[in-house]
Specification:
The protein is an all-alpha fold. The protein contains 4 helices and no strands.
Length: 78
């Protein structure tokens, strides 16, 4: 079974909403690697969906997730 890019983005979005802070931080780390390529591909609309999911992390009470999300934004804007 192979997953398409849309299914992977859906999975990543759901991982960003996970209750485990470790899961969310590891998902952010993986997105740091793939987001530049995704945003420059013809699937860039999916990158926007992931960015919106990352922006929702600002509502999380765990401060380390907020720091990780800011680091993520910093890395992808370079």
């Amino acid at each position: 079974m192979t997953l398409g890019i849309q299914e992977l983005v859906i999975q990543m979005s759901s991982l960003l909403e996970d209750e485990s802070a470790i899961t969310v931080r590891l998902t952010l780390s993986s997105l740091k690697l793939c987001m530049p390529a995704l945003s420059h591909s013809h699937h860039s609309c999916l990158a926007v969906k992931l960015l919106l999911a990352v922006m929702k992390l600002k509502q999380n009470s765990y401060w380390l997730l907020k720091v990780s999300s800011v680091e993520f934004i910093y890395v992808i804007r370079q």
